[in-house]
Specification:
10 strands
Length: 289
């Protein structure tokens, strides 16, 4: 199984680790640490040294309660980093949902669009050159990740999902991927993500992990992002610390455990903050499978 992207054919017969680079002042776990182009690029280099297979770079926080970022500000944060990141000889993904941003980063040579809205965002039409689906369908080869999100970031945790979360997420991802294929995008370009933490309760997130094999059979590779999520802290009984760096370091062990469990249950890509530890844990798993 391969993931077709702009410049790389990514072999998914072995799980891949996607390293997170937040070029933001307000991301939930590392906001501000890599907000400058220089610090973000140094972090990219570190993640590659740690064993990352893919870099996922984002400039807008989608944590619960996050407010939307203006397009021009998102581009101002992203473009200086991406101009250098695309020279690192590794697949580069951009975490965005705005069509104008998608077009700009693809023009720079970015390989993957990772969209929490699954190409459904319908913000102000003014200034948008095309729909997100049109941008992806017009590009000949870029990869795309379609994520399930219930609601939108500002309110998604206030009114979480009802009913059988696994069945609903599976149906949404299958239907959205099919619509994209009908728009002309080859199946090999599409990866799906159930959206851990995006409008879901702790119990619902755990159900997605417990029954992940039902999603893994949905004909598209799975990307899973459990890293440092509050559901893990809740399950492990980790109290919030006054120092953010201490709090999120305490989530390292549970994040690595969740990544390994996700791969055991069919994930092809895990999106993580702590690349080195995840890579080491997956080597142990690979040694016995």
């Amino acid at each position: 199984m391969n993931w077709t992207t702009s410049r790389f054919l990514i072999d998914l017969t072995k799980p891949k680790v996607m390293g997170i680079v937040n070029v933001t002042p307000d991301s939930f776990s590392d906001g501000g640490r890599y907000a400058s182009a220089h610090s973000a690029l140094r972090h990219c280099e570190k993640l590659l040294c740690d064993g990352a297979d893919i870099l996922d770079i984002g400039a807008e926080s989608t944590r619960p309660g996050a407010r939307p970022l203006p397009t021009d500000e998102e581009l101002a944060r992203l473009l200086p980093v991406l101009r250098e990141a695309v020279r690192l000889d590794v697949p580069v993904s951009v975490d965005t949902y705005k069509p104008t941003v998608m077009q700009a980063v693809l023009d720079l040579g970015v390989d993957i669009i990772n969209d929490v809205w699954a190409l459904r965002w319908r913000g102000s039409a003014s200034g948008e050159i095309a729909s997100a689906t049109q941008i992806i369908a017009t590009h000949p080869t870029c990869g795309v990740c379609l994520m399930h999100m219930h609601g939108e970031p500002m309110t998604m945790q206030l009114l979480p999902m009802d009913g059988d979360v696994v069945a609903q997420v599976r149906q949404f991802l299958q239907e959205t991927a099919t619509q994209l294929e009908q728009a002309g995008v080859q199946r090999s370009r599409i990866v799906i993500d159930p959206g851990i933490g995006f409008g879901k309760t702790v119990a619902q997130n755990l159900a997605l992990l417990e029954r992940q094999l039902e999603l893994a059979g949905a004909s598209h590779p799975l990307l899973i992002g459990w890293s440092r999520k509050s559901s893990l802290a809740a399950v492990a009984g980790l109290a919030n610390a006054s120092d953010a760096s201490t709090e999120f370091h305490s989530r390292l062990a549970v994040s690595v455990a969740a990544a390994v469990l996700a791969v055991e249950r069919g994930a092809s890509i895990v999106r993580v903050h702590d690349v080195l530890e995840t890579v080491q844990a997956l080597k142990v798993l690979n040694a016995i499978t």
